[in-house]
Each structure stands twice: as C-alpha cells, then as structure tokens.
C-alpha cells in the first residue's frame, strides 16, 4: 500500500501494486479493503496522466466494491460513471467492465442513471461517446425493459454504427432479448446480422452466422428466405469456422424450411461431405443427421447413400460422424435401406480407428430396436467382444427412450427378437458377458410387457435357471415383483386350460393327449419352481381373472410335491380354492417374547440354517418376517455371519444377496483365540487356489465372480463397528449404577485389546505380541500419545525395519485408545473417529491386496476400478488408504 500511495515511485511499480491488490482482494479483510479503496479512488480522481494507472484503479474499484458487500458502493458507482467520460478509450472501457460487474447490485435509480449515460453516448453529448455506449449496452442489455429497448432503437436509427450497436444489444443472450422485441425491431435485428455477415472480418461474420440460426425461429417467411440465402452463401466462405457455423445454423432452421429450400440444403450438405476441410465434412454430416427427419423417401435415399459412402472416407472423424448419423435416421429407413445400413455398420467393426468402431456399435444399438429376430441374431453374431458394452449401452438407452411411447406392435417385435436371440445363445454361444447383457435388456422391458409376454419371459428365464443357471439370470428372476409373478402365474394357468380344451377337441382324432399333457405340465412345474425359489408370497384365489379351479388345483399339487422334495414345511396343504392362498412360513419360527433377550435366538438359528442350506427364498423370508434381525449382527457360535456360511458352502446366490443387503466384508470368522481367522474374501481365495488347475470348474468361475463383486463393493470401514467397539470398552468401565469402576492397568489393557481385536480381526494373543514385538514405544509412553516424541521412541527408521501390517496395527490401537478415553471424558472425538476409520480402511485394503496380488493377479483390474470409483467420490474425510 505504501508503494501504491508513493507518487515518487515509478508508475510501473504502482500499476503492479494495483494488479496484485485486485488478485488478492477476495482474500483481504474489511480494514485492508477500506485502505485499498481510499487509495485507488484518490489516485483515480487526482487527474493522474498515466492512463494505465487510471485504468487499473477503475478495475480495482469494481473488485473492491463487490467484496465489501455494498460498502462504498455508491461512491464507486459515481466514480465509474464519471470515468465513462475519461479522455482515454481504454479507461472508459475499464469503467464499463467494472460497472457491468456491479450491475447485479444496482437499484432502480442507478440503472436509470446508467441508461441515461448510454443514450447520451449514442447521441455523443455530455462527454459520452458511442463506442463506450456500445460496450455498455452489450453488458447491461438483459437488465433493460421493453420501453428502454424501444428508446435504444429510436436513438440508433440512422447512426453510422447502428448495426454494430444492435448486434451488441443482442450479443449476451439473443434468445432472451428477442422475446422483448416487436416485429419492427426484430426486422432491424435480422438486417443487422445479415449486414454483419457481409463484414470483411471473419470474427464478425462467424457470430452473425450463429445468431441468424438462433433468431430464425422467430422469423417471418420473408425474413426466413433472407436468412436462408445468407447461410447458404456462407457455406462457400473461405474460412472453415464460418462454413461450420452456417451448416450448424441451417440444421437449426431446417424445421421451418419449405420443400424447395430443404432440397437445396440437402444437396449443398451432401456436396459438403466432399469438402477438402474435415471440419466442414463433419459438420455437414451432423446437419444431415438432423435434417433427415424431414426428408421424403427419395431425399432420404440419397442421404443414406452419401452416409454409407462417407464410412469409406479417408478421415476418421467423417467415418465416425456418418456412422452415428445412420443410427439417428434409422427409424425412417425402409427394409432395403435398413439392411444396407446394418451391413455397412457391421463392416465398420473392421475399421482401424477404435472410435469409428464405437460409433458403429452405438448406431447398431439404436437400430436394433427396429430389427426382426433374424436381423438381431445377425448383429449379435457379428458383434466383437470389445464393442459389446458400447452396443448394449446404446441399445438399452434406445429402449428406455421408446418404451414410454411404443405401441403393441413395437413391443411384440422387440420382445420376440430378444427372446429368439436369448434362446439361441443358450446352445450356440459361450460368451457370458454378451448373454448377461441380453438378459439385462429382457429385464429392462419386463415391466412393459403384456401378461402373455411376461409369462413367456418368466418361463424362458426359469428354463435357464434350471438348466444352466447364471447369477444374472437368478438376479433377474429375483427382481420380478409379486404382482408380475401373479400376472405370469394366472396367465400360465389360463394357457394350461386353453391348451387342455384344444387338446380335448383333437383327442377325438388322435391319441397324442399323453404327449401334450407332459409338455404342458412342464411349464406349470417351472412356475412352481420359480414361485418357491424366488417369490413364495403371492396370493391367488379362484376369482383372480376367472382362474379355473382345475388349473389352480394342479398348481397347488405341484407346490406340495416340490415342498416335500425340498423338505419344506407343507403349509400349502391348507390352501383353499375358495379363498386367498396363505403365505408360507417356517416351522421353526418362534413367537416374539417381549423383554426377553432370547426372543430372536431361534430366528438367528433359522437365518444361519437357510444360509447354510442354500435356500435363498427361505433366507429372504426369515429376514422379511423378522426385520429386527441385522444381517451383520447375526453370528453363530463360531462367529460366522450368514455371508461366511454362504461362501463356505458355495451358495453364491445367497452370498450375492448378503452383499447387496450391506453385509460387512471385512470381518473374520472363528472363535476368539482360534488360530484360523478368515474373512469372506480369504475363504473364497482358499477355494480358488484349491481348484486353480481346473479351468472349467463351475464353482471356480463362480468364486472368481464373487471375488470381483467383493472387490467392487469395498467402501470405507463401517463407522457402526467402530462405535460398537468403543462403547464396549467404555461400558465395561462403568457399573450398573453408572459409577466408574476402579480398574488396574492390566485389566484396562485387556479391555482395550478385546475392543481392538474386534476391529482388526486378530486374536488378543496376536495383537499383544505385535504391540510388544514391534513397538516398545507404546509401553514406554504409558499409552499417553502426547508424551510420545522422538526422544522416547526406539530409533527405528520407517524404511528399515517397519512392516506395514504391524505399523498399521500399532497406529490403529493408539487411535482406538484415544477415542475410548475421549468418549469416557465426554469430550468431542469425531475427528479421532474419522481418522480411525481411515486407518482401518487402509489396514483392510492392504490385507485384501496382499491376499490376491500373487495368487490371482488378474483381479487387479477389478480392484483398480474400485479404487478409481472411490477416489472420484471422496467424501469430507479423504480415504488416505487410496491416496
């Protein structure tokens, strides 16, 4: 500040000081801003001859007034208004910029004052000039009302810079300003932009081309003709940026063009695909993509031929753009054109450029919604593995867009094609990722299907589940709602009766009734399998959509038979065709006993038994009937959660369900001091290593899939477990009357070790050995972290003797002790909890990576995906384990 106020200092030094003050103004306090304000306004008003100094002060005043939240605002405003009459144009321009910055906080009086200065400038009176007013108009046009805008047009009439000023008026937001204009004013705006398009400078012509495309939506027929001719002439401009802007604007106004104009545009754009400049060719291809929606059959045929030939262009961007355009216009193509487009895009998979291949896959995804079953099968067979994701993602997005408005014919066509290909893939294709994505598409459209289609879909998925079941098929069946199961079941019962009636008519002439009956009952048996496996809670009665009692009785009989085979409780025997079917329950469920700590002991046993036996429906049912059971708190005598049991017995569907329900991943099973303590992930790795030599082992493949799922599901260590461990130690130190117990040092250490082992997944013996062996520092410091300094520590360098595991265990134990102490003292300990959470996450991350990096290095990609995902979504507490 001293150098700024010192008039004897060189002017360049004072200017630099002003520039620095402007940069740091948003970090200065109010007292510092007041000093800077007084100095800058004094320098600006003292008639200093250095224009750069005055210009810098004008910009600094604007920045300070904003940061002072209105203080000195009026003084700054008046100073800048006076500055509009400065003798130097650059100072005037700086004052305009600062005024525009302050305009958000103007009151009505200040707006009126500024507007009067604006008008005076257009009239070159009272010391204001037209050049300054033009720039000021550009900045404050959005704040003017219709009366003020009308006055501006009146003042501009006949001025030498009339067209430049009108363009300045519309520069910031043409769409918004145009809503305030009447027809006469709009006509003048059109003329101003058409005039500007003839300017000798390309930087004037380019924004005029873009603006004409925006404002043409409000054009009259006469004005549109003028705009059209102007843009067409611009397609031949020497500057490629202008040709590109014209092509884009023609795309915008295409909806308003008549047939003759449209034909002319199409011809010009098609010839533009042969332009020597690749940007023009790309822009023309994109414009054809939009305009094609208005073309007649003959014009569309020409465009298709041009786009197909464009896929052979030497420039990769043109090939990419043409491939994309074929997908956009596919909805309007006839059968022959569609076949040609499919073949061309399929050939595009051989392109050397990956982005062209991606565009081909995405366009085929869009086109697939219009294909027959045979055509869709052809696309599937031609689809390279590396383009599967792009194709299916595009297909899925296209289905989502049209599913809200498709008619019955479209629905049937899409459903039949997908089912046809899905059935064919079961026997002919070993590509599991393609098969999985196809099942996801069927799952997507399932809510849009009619009853018959839904029934056929359910039967198809159940056939797959019984023969060659994959987790994604089970997942799709699990997501089918109760209402959809009910609809499919009722439809199946009706189909059964209908086929039986048809068979009765033909039975007079043939004796094939036995064959028919066997085939038909297979579908009923499949429905029973599905109901009892994935959704055993639907209710049916004879009155449901006129369900025939014979068919319902048959369903009940098969349910009873299946229940006996699976050793299920046979409550189904109570079903009555004259009333709703009772929902099945489990024989070993127990009645709730209020205030009894063992009230849910039997239920916990049932949960573990269901997980061990592999009965997913039973497992779900227990959890649904007993919401008080926490999937993470439910442990058996071996400290095994349902997730441990499901993995140990290789019931992957239950394991997946547990993880989806939030089961803890970083928790070890085993008795308290058992030598074998394993996490779910470690158990799976043991299974994989055991069967690693057998590449075709189904269990091994399923285990690998589960490993990938666990790696992708890793998150921060659960805060709930940390709170539980801290409360465990704290509560042990207080008696029943709330009085703190007198406890010796050894007992306190034991308590801390018990709590820490819960978090670390190690035995107390292992923990104590680690602490003593690797850190005498801990015992020497008497557990007071503040007293741990370099003088008391064992001199052991971190790069010579420290191993990550004991270091992390030692650090976590110290943090745990701090958190327990702070909780006992009733002090804030949130920061310590978050740091403990970070260190525990680091600890379990390290254990997980060490487990698989040598045994199954191919899992590193899935681990990397999780790391990137977690880094992108870092919360307030950064995961130091990842960084």
Automatic annotation (TrEMBL):
Task: Write the protein's name.
Answer: Stalled ribosome sensor GCN1-like HEAT repeats region domain-containing protein
What the protein does comes down to: Catalyzes the hydroxylation of the N(6)-(4-aminobutyl)-L-lysine intermediate produced by deoxyhypusine synthase/DHPS on a critical lysine of the eukaryotic translation initiation factor 5A/eIF-5A. This is the second step of the post-translational modification of that lysine into an unusual amino acid residue named hypusine. Hypusination is unique to mature eIF-5A factor and is essential for its function.
Query: Repeat ANK: residue ranges?
Result: 638-670
Could you state a single Gene Ontology molecular function term? oxidoreductase activity
Q: Which Gene3D superfamilies match?
A: Ankyrin repeat-containing domain, Leucine-rich Repeat Variant
Q: Start-end of the HEAT repeats? A: 227-264, 265-302, 303-340
Q: Name one Pfam family in it.
A: HEAT_GCN1
Keyword Repeat in the entry? The reply is yes
Q: Could you name the domain of life of the organism this protein comes from?
A: Eukaryota
Give the Stalled ribosome sensor GCN1-like HEAT repeats region domain ranges.
Answer: 209-345
The alphabetized UniProt keywords are:
ANK repeat, Repeat
């Amino acid at each position: 500040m001293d150098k700024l106020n010192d008039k004897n200092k060189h002017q360049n030094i004072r200017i630099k000081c002003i520039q620095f003050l402007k940069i740091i103004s948003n970090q200065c306090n109010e007292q510092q801003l007041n000093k800077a304000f007084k100095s800058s306004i004094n320098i600006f008003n003292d008639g200093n001859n250095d224009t750069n100094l005055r210009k810098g002060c004008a910009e600094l005043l604007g920045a300070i007034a904003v940061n002072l939240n209105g203080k000195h605002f009026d003084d700054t405003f008046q100073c800048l208004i006076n500055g509009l009459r400065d003798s130097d144009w650059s100072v005037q321009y700086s004052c305009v910029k600062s005024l525009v910055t302050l305009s958000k906080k103007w009151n009505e009086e200040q707006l009126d004052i500024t507007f009067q200065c604006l008008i005076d400038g257009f009239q070159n009176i009272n010391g204001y000039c037209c050049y300054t007013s033009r720039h000021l108009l550009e900045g404050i046009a959005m704040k003017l009302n219709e009366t003020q805008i009308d006055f501006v047009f009146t003042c501009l009439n006949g001025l030498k810079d009339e067209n430049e000023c009108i363009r300045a008026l519309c520069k910031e937001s043409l769409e918004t300003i145009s809503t305030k204009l009447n027809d006469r004013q709009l006509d003048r705006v059109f003329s101003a932009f058409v005039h500007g398009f003839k300017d000798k400078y390309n930087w004037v012509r380019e924004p005029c081309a873009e603006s004409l495309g925006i404002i043409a939506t409000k054009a009259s027929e006469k004005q549109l003709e003028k705009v059209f001719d102007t843009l067409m002439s611009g397609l031949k401009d020497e500057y490629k940026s202008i040709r590109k802007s014209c092509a884009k604007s023609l795309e915008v106004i295409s909806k308003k063009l008549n047939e003759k104009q449209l034909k002319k545009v199409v011809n010009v754009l098609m010839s533009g695909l042969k332009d020597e400049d690749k940007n023009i060719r790309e822009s023309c291809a994109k414009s054809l993509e939009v305009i094609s929606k208005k073309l007649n059959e003959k014009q569309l045929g020409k465009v298709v031929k041009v786009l197909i030939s464009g896929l052979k262009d030497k420039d990769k961007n043109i090939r990419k753009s043409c491939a994309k355009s074929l997908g956009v216009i596919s909805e309007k193509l006839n059968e022959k054109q569609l076949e040609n487009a499919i073949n061309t895009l399929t050939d595009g998979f051989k392109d050397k450029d990956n982005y062209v291949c991606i565009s081909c896959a995405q366009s085929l995804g869009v086109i697939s919604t219009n294909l027959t079953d045979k055509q869709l099968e052809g696309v599937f067979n031609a689809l390279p593995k590396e383009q599967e994701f792009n194709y299916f993602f595009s297909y899925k997005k296209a289905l989502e867009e049209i599913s809200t408005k498709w008619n019955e014919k479209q629905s049937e066509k899409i459903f039949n094609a997908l089912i046809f290909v899905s059935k064919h893939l079961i026997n002919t294709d070993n590509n599991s990722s393609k098969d999985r994505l196809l099942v996801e598409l069927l799952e997507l459209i399932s809510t849009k299907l009619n009853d018959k289609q839904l029934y056929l879909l359910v039967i198809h998925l159940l056939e797959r589940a019984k023969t060659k079941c994959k987790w994604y098929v089970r997942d799709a069946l699990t997501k089918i709602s109760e209402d959809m199961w009910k609809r499919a079941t009722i439809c199946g019962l009706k189909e059964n009766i209908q086929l039986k009636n048809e068979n009765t008519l033909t039975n007079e002439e043939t004796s094939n009734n036995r064959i028919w009956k066997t085939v038909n009952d297979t579908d009923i048996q499949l429905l029973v399998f599905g109901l009892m496996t994935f959704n055993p809670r639907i209710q049916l009665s004879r009155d449901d959509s006129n369900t025939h009692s014979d068919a319902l009785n048959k369903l009940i009989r098969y349910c009873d038979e299946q229940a006996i085979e699976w050793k299920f409780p046979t409550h189904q025997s109570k079903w009555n065709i004259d009333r709703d079917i009772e929902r099945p329950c489990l024989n070993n469920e127990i009645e709730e006993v209020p205030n009894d700590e063992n009230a849910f002991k039997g239920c916990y046993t049932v949960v573990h038994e269901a997980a061990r036996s592999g009965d997913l429906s039973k497992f779900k049912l227990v959890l649904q009937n007993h919401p008080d059971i926490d999937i993470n708190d439910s442990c058996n005598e071996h400290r095994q959660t349902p997730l441990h049991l499901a993995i140990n017995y290789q019931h992957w569907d239950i394991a997946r369900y547990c993880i989806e329900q939030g089961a803890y991943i970083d928790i070890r099973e085993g008795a308290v001091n058992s030598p074998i303590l394993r996490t779910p992930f470690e158990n799976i790795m043991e299974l994989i290593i055991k069967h690693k030599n057998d590449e075709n082992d189904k269990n091994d493949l399923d285990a690998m899939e589960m490993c990938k799922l666990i790696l992708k599901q890793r998150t921060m260590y659960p805060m709930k477990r940390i709170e539980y461990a801290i409360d465990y130690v704290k509560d042990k130190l207080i008696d029943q009357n709330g009085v703190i117990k007198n406890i010796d040092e050894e007992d306190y250490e034991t308590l801390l070790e018990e709590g820490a082992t819960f978090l670390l997944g190690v035995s107390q013996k292992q923990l104590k050995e680690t602490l003593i062996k690797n850190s005498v520092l801990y015992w020497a410091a008497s557990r007071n972290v503040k007293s741990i300094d370099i003088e008391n520590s064992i001199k052991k360098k971190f790069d010579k003797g420290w191993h990550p595991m004991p270091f992390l265990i030692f650090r976590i134990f110290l943090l745990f002790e701090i958190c327990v102490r702070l909780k006992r003292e009733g002090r804030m300990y949130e920061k310590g909890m978050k740091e403990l959470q970070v260190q525990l996450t680091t600890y379990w991350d390290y254990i997980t990576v060490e487990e698989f990096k040598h045994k199954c290095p191919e899992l590193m990609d899935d681990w990397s995906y999780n790391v990137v995902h977690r880094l992108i979504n870092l919360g307030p507490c950064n995961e130091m384990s990842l960084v």
